[in-house]
Design a protein that fits this description.
Elements (H helix, E strand, L loop, with lengths): L28 H14 L5 H33 L11 H14 L6 H16 L6 E5 L5 H10 L4 E5 L2 H10 L4 E8 L3 E2 L1 H6 L6 E9 L3 E4 L9 E5 H6 L1 H7 L4 E5 L2 H8 L5 E5 L1 H7 L2 E4 L9 E8 L9 E8 L6 H11 L4 E8 L7 E8 L7 H8 L5 E9 L4
Helix pairs in contact: 2-4, 3-4, 12-13
């Protein structure tokens, strides 16, 4: 805006100053600082001491901003008033929105995955100011389920290792855990049936999903492949590595156990035994890495579900899981899927399982895009409910952030 003197209506008032060309506003402090850093970065051979001084200054700014964010997060708690527990402060749809904006803003050089992990840990620590969330998972410590918990909730959450998927459901339903994390499918081996079967009777809701790239390692006490006569692992992991085992350990006895961490605990008792597990399990139990990664598919990924006792609002990019019981009549499955197709609702997965309490009756587990409280999915479900035997919404939840 042009700089000018105020006009006076009184006699003898000074004439208005002539208009002058507007000057550009000085850049904000952060922008000026960024330009200064960029100039240093463009130097062919920058001075090392100057670079380190810049890094130290940035570190101070980052730490101050994190502290400020934590203070504002505490204000959120105050705004909500006195609530019962940490679970009352947790909003998965809000976290998903924050992380998607992190990805949208990212222009490098750090990857989306790295920045999402950093912001997840910041949010986890800020939430833990109220009280750490308690998360049940298939234990013991060192399993891929524990890694999924840390990826989704951050390291400030308190993990509760449990002995079975059924116990994870039970502890969440009883209120001893705020949420649970359970595996549901693998990109190469398909669905974990025991998890689906729990939804046939459980009142719990699906509140989120986690996609974890799974790398399998062969672990032993000695670290020598020639010593190995037995290999322990979870049945799913044995299947994911069957080609590698056939080529590298063809005559070795293979035994499926309840979890990969349990396999490591067994293998640790003998020099002639080995386990297939994640690399983290080697650090937890003091084992040697014999070989790895040994999974047959380089894109080996396991999808986990976050289960809880309540439903949450839409995040803007959601998925809904349904359990549908169909009346025994011609074209029943078509009549369920047609309202979805007509509204261009994408179906991500469909799986059938025997229904409890009825011989030769089946329940269909269906994953579709959208949130149950929003159209067009809301309208499609109202139409499906008119002729389906039973439509049970297992949960609407944010799609996993990359």
């Amino acid at each position: 805006m042009a700089d000018r003197k105020s006009k006076s209506t009184g006699k003898g008032a000074s004439p208005a100053a002539p208009k002058r060309k507007a000057k550009a506003a000085p850049p904000p402090k952060a922008e000026a600082s960024a330009r200064s850093r960029a100039a240093v970065a463009r130097q062919a051979k920058p001075d090392l001491a100057a670079v380190r001084t810049q890094i130290d200054g940035i570190d101070r700014e980052i730490q101050a901003l994190i502290a400020e964010r934590a203070l504002w997060a505490h204000q959120v708690g105050k705004a909500k008033g006195k609530l019962a527990a940490a679970i009352d402060y947790y909003r998965p749809e809000r976290e998903a929105q924050v992380l998607r904006r992190v990805v949208d803003r990212n222009d490098g050089p750090l990857s989306d995955e790295v920045l999402v992990r950093l912001f997840r840990e910041i949010m986890s620590a800020c939430l833990a100011q109220q009280e750490p969330l308690k998360i049940g998972y298939l234990g013991p410590e060192g399993t891929f389920s524990q890694q999924a918990v840390q990826k989704h909730f951050g390291h400030s959450a308190r993990g509760l290792p449990l002995v079975s998927i059924e116990e994870v459901f039970d502890e969440v339903a009883a209120g001893n855990a705020d949420f649970g994390v359970v595996p549901v499918e693998n990109s190469g081996q398909g669905t974990i049936q025991s998890t689906l079967d729990m939804f046939l009777t459980s009142p719990l809701k699906i509140c989120g999903e986690v996609e974890l790239r799974v790398h399998q390692y062969l672990l032993s006490r000695t670290g020598h492949i020639e010593d190995i006569e037995r290999v322990y692992s979870h049945g799913m992991s044995l299947a994911q590595c069957k080609n590698w085992l056939r080529h590298n350990l063809p005559g070795v006895h293979k035994e499926a156990v309840s979890s990969n961490a349990e396999a490591v605990r067994r293998a640790k008792k003998s020099d002639d035994a080995a386990a297939i597990a994640g690399e983290n399990a080697a650090h937890v139990y003091g084992m040697q890495v014999v070989a790895g990664p040994i999974e047959d598919r380089s894109d080996n990924t396991t999808r986990f579900l976050v289960i809880g006792r309540a439903s949450f609002p839409p995040s803007g990019n959601d998925r809904t899981s349904l359990m549908v019981s169909i009346r025994d009549q011609p074209g029943a499955l078509y009549r369920i899927l047609e309202p979805l197709a007509r509204r261009n609702i994408s179906m991500n997965r469909i799986e059938s399982r025997p229904a409890h309490g009825a011989l030769w009756q089946y329940a269909f587990f269906i994953d579709v895009e959208g949130h149950v409280d929003e159209s067009p999915l809301k309208d499609a479900l109202a139409e499906i409910d008119d002729f389906a035997g039973d439509v049970h919404v297992l949960g609407s939840y944010p799609v996993a952030v990359p």
